[in-house]
Task: inverse folding
C-alpha cells in the first residue's frame, strides 16, 4: 500500500513538473537518432517514455498480484484438503482409541470377574477346610472329654455325681 502511494506521488510530482515547465517540454529540439537527425520536443518524448514505463510497471504489478492471488488460492485449497485429511485421520484415531478402550475395559472386566470367581472359590475351599478342621477339633475334644469321663467313672465310686461335685471346687 505504501509503495503504491509512493509511486502515485512520484507520478503526480512528475505531472506537476511537466505542467509547470510545459513550454520547455514542448519546445522542439534537434535529436540525433544514430542515422538521422530529427526535430522533436525532447520533453514530450521523455514524458511519453515515463508514461509508457509507468503503464508497463502497473501491468507488471497487476500480473504479479494476480499470480500471487492465484497461488494463494491454490495453496488455500491444498491447505483445506490437508486439513480435511488430518481431521479424517484424527477422527479415525479417535475411533480406534475408543474401540481399544472398549476392548481393554471388557478384558479388564473379564479378568476381574475371573479373579473374583477364583477368589470366591478359594474362600469356599478355605471355609470348607476350616469347617472340617473345626469339626475334627470338636470331635477330638469330645473324644478326649469322653475318655476323661470314662476314666473318671471307672476310677471313682459314684461316677458322674462325684465328678460334678469335684468340678464345683
Result:
Amino acid at each position: 500500500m505504501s509503495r503504491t502511494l509512493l509511486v502515485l506521488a512520484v507520478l503526480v510530482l512528475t505531472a506537476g513538473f511537466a505542467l509547470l515547465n510545459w513550454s520547455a517540454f514542448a519546445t522542439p529540439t534537434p535529436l540525433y537518432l544514430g542515422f538521422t537527425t530529427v526535430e522533436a520536443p525532447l520533453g514530450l518524448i521523455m514524458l511519453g517514455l515515463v508514461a509508457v514505463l509507468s503503464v508497463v510497471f502497473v501491468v507488471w504489478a497487476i500480473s504479479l498480484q494476480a499470480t500471487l492471488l492465484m497461488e494463494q488460492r491454490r495453496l488455500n485449497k491444498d491447505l483445506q484438503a490437508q486439513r480435511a485429511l488430518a481431521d479424517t485421520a484424527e477422527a479415525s484415531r479417535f475411533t480406534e482409541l475408543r474401540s481399544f478402550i472398549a476392548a481393554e475395559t471388557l478384558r479388564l472386566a473379564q479378568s476381574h470377574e475371573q479373579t473374583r470367581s477364583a477368589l470366591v472359590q478359594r474362600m469356599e475351599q478355605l471355609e470348607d477346610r476350616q469347617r472340617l478342621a473345626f469339626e475334627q477339633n470338636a470331635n477330638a475334644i469330645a473324644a478326649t472329654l469322653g475318655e476323661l469321663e470314662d476314666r473318671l467313672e471307672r476310677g471313682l465310686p459314684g461316677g458322674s455325681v462325684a465328678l460334678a461335685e469335684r468340678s464345683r471346687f
User: Anything to note?
Assistant: Residues 2-112 form one domain. The first helix runs from residue 2 to 20. The mean pLDDT is 88.
